[in-house]
Design goal:
CATH topology of the largest domain: Growth Hormone, Chain: A
Number of helices: 19
Shape: globular
Pfam family, one: MFS_1
Subcellular location: Cell membrane
Protein name: MFS transporter
Structural class: mainly alpha
Order of helices and strands: EEHHHHHHHHHHHHHHHHHHH
InterPro entries: MFS, MFS_Cyanate_Porter, MFS_dom, MFS_trans_sf
Keywords: Membrane, Transmembrane, Transmembrane helix
Radius of gyration: 23 Å
CATH architecture of the largest domain: Up-down Bundle
Length: 445
C-alpha cells in the first residue's frame, strides 16, 4: 500500500485514488509544518486558564468577592468542563470537521479568558471561566485524532512533542502570574494568556483555507481515476462508529487507565502540599515539591509516546511507570520527610502513563473518525471519574483523621491501573480503514 499526501498534508491512500502518475518521494515534514505548529500551540493553550489563576487567587478575591464555596467550585470547573465539553467535541467535529471545531474551541477559550478578566462579580467570573475551559476541554479531545489524521507515520513523536507542550502549559503560567499581577494587575495576568488561544487558532485557519484548494484538486483526481469493481473511492462515514467504540473492551480499558491516572495526578496537585505539611514540612516547601513532581513529568511526556509507538505492546513501559508511582506513594506514606526528593521524582515519573494513553488513542484506531470518537469517550469518562478523586480523598482524610488510609487507597488504584492497562496495551486495532472514515466534505462530493 502506498501513501501520498494532499496539498494540505492529509494522507491519501492508494486504495482510494489510483493514478497513472508515479509516486514521488518527498520530505517527511513537507506540507505538515503548519499543522505541527497548530498542534503545539493548542497544547500550550490547554492548561493556562487553570494554571494562571490559582497562584494569584488571593489577589483576585480582593476585587472579585469569591466565597470559600465559590473558590471550591472554581477548582471543580476544570475537570467538569473537560468531561462535558470534551464529550461535545465529538459530534461537533463530525458535523463541521476537526479543523473548524478546533478553531472554534481556541476562540472560545480566548474569549472566556479575556472577558473573565474584565468582570467584577463572582458569578460572572465563574461563568466566563466555564467558557474558557469549555474550549480547552474540546481541544483536549481533538488533538489525538488530528495527530492521527496528519501524522499517521509519526504518532509517537508528535504526541511526545505536544505532551511536552502540555506540560509547559501547566508549568509556565504560575511562574509569570504573580510578577505580572504585581506589575500590571491581576486582570492582565489572567487575560493576556488569551493571546496563546488566538495564536493557536491561526494555523488551523490556514489549514482550512488550504484544504479548499486541495479538496478541489482531489475531487478532479477522483473524477478521472479508474475504479475497481465493488470498490468505493472514498469510504463514507460509518454511523456505527459510536457503537463500535462504546462497546469495545479496548476503549473501556483505555478510559479506565486514563481515569485512574488522572485521578492520581489530580489528588497529588490538590493534596500533596498538605500531606507534606502534616508530616512536618513547611507549607511553602510543599509547594516547591509539587513543582518538582510537575517538572519530572517532562521526561516521561517526551519519551513515553515515542517508546509506545516503537513497541508492539507497551505494557512493560506502563509497569515501569506504575512501579515508580507505587514506590513514591510508599515513601510518602512511611517516610515523607526522609528522601522526599526521591519520592517526588518517582511520583512525577509515574504520571508517564498519561502520555502513553494519549499515544494509544492514535495507535489503536484505524481512522481519524474512530480516533475522535475514542478520544471523546476516553476523556469524557476519564475526567468525569477523576473529578471525584480529590473530593473522595478529602472525605477519607476527614473520616480517618490521617493520611494512611487515603494513601493506601491511592496505592490500590495503582494496582487496579496495572490490571486495566494490560488490556489497554494489547496490540489490537479498533476498526479497520474500510469500516469507517471521515465524512466526505461537501467540496469533494
Amino acid at each position: 500500500m502506498v501513501r501520498g499526501q494532499a496539498d494540505d498534508g492529509r494522507p491519501i491512500d492508494s486504495r482510494q485514488v489510483e493514478s497513472s502518475q508515479p509516486v514521488t518521494s518527498r520530505p517527511v515534514w513537507r506540507g505538515r509544518l503548519v499543522v505541527l505548529a497548530g498542534i503545539v500551540l493548542v497544547a500550550l493553550n490547554l492548561r493556562v486558564a487553570v494554571a494562571a489563576v490559582s497562584p494569584i487567587l488571593a489577589v483576585v478575591r480582593e476585587d472579585v468577592a469569591l466565597s470559600a464555596g465559590e473558590v471550591g467550585l472554581l477548582g471543580t470547573i476544570p475537570v467538569v468542563s473537560f468531561a462535558v465539553f470534551g464529550s461535545l467535541a465529538t459530534p461537533c467535529a463530525r458535523r463541521v470537521g476537526l479543523e473548524p471545531t478546533m478553531i472554534l474551541a481556541m476562540l472560545l477559550s480566548a474569549t472566556g479568558e479575556v472577558v473573565r478578566a474584565t468582570v467584577s462579580s463572582a458569578p460572572a467570573f465563574l461563568a466566563w471561566s466555564v467558557l474558557a475551559l469549555a474550549g480547552m476541554g474540546m481541544g483536549n479531545v481533538l488533538l489525538p485524532p488530528l495527530v492521527k489524521r496528519y501524522f499517521p507515520d509519526r504518532i509517537g513523536l508528535v504526541t511526545a512533542v505536544y505532551s511536552v507542550a502540555l506540560s509547559f502549559s501547566t508549568a509556565l503560567p504560575p511562574l509569570f502570574a504573580l510578577p505580572v499581577a504585581q506589575r500590571y494587575g491581576w486582570r492582565v495576568a489572567i487575560g493576556w494568556w488569551a493571546v496563546v488561544g488566538v495564536a493557536a487558532a491561526v494555523p488551523w485557519v490556514v489549514v482550512v483555507v488550504r484544504s479548499v484548494t486541495a479538496r478541489a484538486h482531489l475531487r478532479e483526481l477522483l473524477r478521472r481515476a479508474p475504479r475497481r469493481t465493488g470498490e468505493q473511492v472514498l469510504v463514507s462515514h460509518d454511523r456505527g462508529v459510536t457503537r463500535l467504540v462504546w462497546r469495545s473492551p479496548l476503549a473501556w480499558a483505555l478510559a479506565a487507565t486514563w481515569a485512574l491516572n488522572t485521578t492520581g495526578m489530580y489528588v497529588l496537585f490538590a493534596w500533596l502540599p498538605e500531606i507534606l505539611a502534616d508530616a512536618g514540612l513547611d507549607p511553602a516547601e510543599g509547594g516547591r515539591w509539587l513543582a518538582v513532581v510537575a517538572i519530572m513529568g517532562l521526561p516521561a511526556a517526551l519519551l513515553g509516546p515515542v517508546l509506545t509507538a516503537r513497541m508492539r505492546n507497551p505494557y512493560p513501559l506502563v509497569v515501569c511507570f506504575l512501579a515508580c508511582w507505587a514506590v513514591g506513594y510508599l515513601g510518602l506514606w512511611f517516610a515523607p520527610t526522609h528522601g522526599t526528593a526521591v519520592w517526588m521524582v518517582l511520583l512525577g515519573i509515574g504520571g508517564g502513563t498519561f502520555p502513553v494513553s494519549l499515544a494509544l488513542i492514535g495507535l489503536r484506531t484505524a481512522t481519524p473518525a474512530i480516533a475522535v470518537t475514542l478520544s471523546g469517550m476516553v476523556q469524557g469518562v476519564g475526567y468525569a471519574v477523576a473529578g471525584l478523586g480529590p473530593v473522595g480523598i478529602g472525605l477519607l482524610y476527614d473520616a480517618t483523621g490521617g493520611w494512611d488510609v487515603p494513601i493506601a487507597v491511592l496505592l490500590g488504584l495503582v494496582l487496579v491501573q496495572a490490571v486495566v492497562a494490560w488490556r489497554a496495551c494489547r496490540p489490537d486495532m479498533l476498526g479497520t480503514p474500510e469500516t469507517a472514515d471521515e465524512p466526505v466534505p461537501a467540496e469533494a462530493r
